[in-house]
Amino acid sequence: MNPGDRVRVERAEQSFEGVVLPSSDAEYLVIKLDGGYNVGVDRTDASVELLEADVYDVGETGGDDGGSEVAFDEELPTISLISTGGTIASTVDYRTGAVTAQFDAEDVLRAVPDLAGRANYRGRVVANILSENMTPAIWDELARAVHEEIEAGADGVVVMHGTDTMAYSASALAFALESPVPIVFTGSQRSADRPSSDNVMNAVCAVEAAKSDCAEVLVCMHATGSDDRCALHRGTRVRKNHTSRRDAFETVGAKPLGEVTYADEPAVSFRRDHRERGAGELALADGFETDVELLKFVPGMDTAFLDVLEGKAGVVIEGTGLGHVHTDLIPRLAALVEDGTTVVMTSQCLEGRVCDRVYDTGRDLLDAGVIEAGDTLPATALVKLMWAIAHAEDVEEAMETSLAGELQRRSTPWT
Among this protein's residues, is 273 annotated catalytic? Predict the structure, then answer.
């Protein structure tokens, strides 16, 4: 009996029929039931009948140094699956009931058999963490791993990532890498043991997007609450706007670049201009200045909050509306700039752009040396500033220039 076999398990007058999952261990047999739920059965005093061997087969696996690969078909493109953890690569510990990130990339292939036959796969584990534990150091590891996979011949890369900080990591790779092939982030809002899990559809659509002609960093997640299509968001323009909905991700200030319809033969389409496959050479500029903070202005904020920013390399501020803060804070910001801290202004608003030339407060901020970030999202501006301080000759010019589609030239109504 092996993962992928269909079995009938009887224990304590209960009977379960389904497919053995790779998360089974010496104590518990984990079965995917026909209704979609997983069940963990204590092997003690359980009887197991093999009904059909190898119901799901992703090929022979093997590899070392944290990597794995499956049997190759020369007629298929090669997609590198890179795992960082998160719900899409998680399973239930049936002893505690907790959902934990413990699958490596090879396990993802076994857990999502629908991926078989769509591409050749290389698997690689960069991290095995929940996304709230993501760090700039791991961004560097991830960027280098993606660079190595593409350099080794991958036709596209899919990054399995937790959803909570996916937008930060997608932005990091968009700035750190120039890629001639697609780099697609995906994850899931609901774990694989739930019938409503979005892991299968998101993974399949992400692989199809990684085979497309769009050589950008994309985020591929459910476009609606139904299992009909995934949206393809530009990695520097996307935001997670709901805690638990399957269609939690939205492109801010524009429509998504494209979508993948989910069917027996998924179809990828793009509605907006994008960087095409092969348009540039592979290049890596990893490294992020970590001494940078993101500060949200609120009415009545204690000016002492700015004390912790003294000596920082940079700070991104979420200001009100067009990019304002209380006038009492402006001298403190001017002092920070004078001492060498790069101060960048964004807006708390989800739509529109910063424009500090309309009101006196904005003009005073500009006189203080604060840099406008246009309609760059605050999270993206934070990552961009961390990258720009580490790499750009002129940080102000870099922050006011669109480097990876993060800064739109105009904010216009869209439908």
Answer: no
- Domain check: are 334 and 382 in the same one? yes
Q: Does residue 268 have a pLDDT over 80?
A: yes
**More confident call, 295 vs 64:** 295
Residue 406 is assigned to a structural domain of this protein: no
In a domain, 410, yes or no: no
Residue position matching structure tokens 């002893």: 95
Residues 102 and 172 in one domain: yes
Q: Judge whether residue 53 has pLDDT over 90.
A: no
- Active site includes 87? yes
Q: Which listed residue (186, 240, 251, 380) is catalytic?
A: 240
CATH of residue 120's domain is 3.40.50.1170
Q: Is residue 384 flagged as an active site residue?
A: no
Beta strand extents in 277-367 (DSSP E only): 283-284, 292-296, 314-319, 342-347
60 is a domain residue: no
> Does a structural domain hold residue 214?
yes
Task: Choose the catalytic residue: 84, 87, 165, 186.
Answer: 87
* Higher-pLDDT residue of 58, 223: 223
The question of whether 165 is a catalytic residue gets the answer no
Say which of 84, 163, 186, 251 is annotated catalytic.
Answer: 163
Counting the structural domains of the chain, the total is: 3
Which amino acid is present at 386?
M
Non-local (6+) Cβ contacts of 127 within 8 A are 83, 84, 85, 134, 138, 141, 142
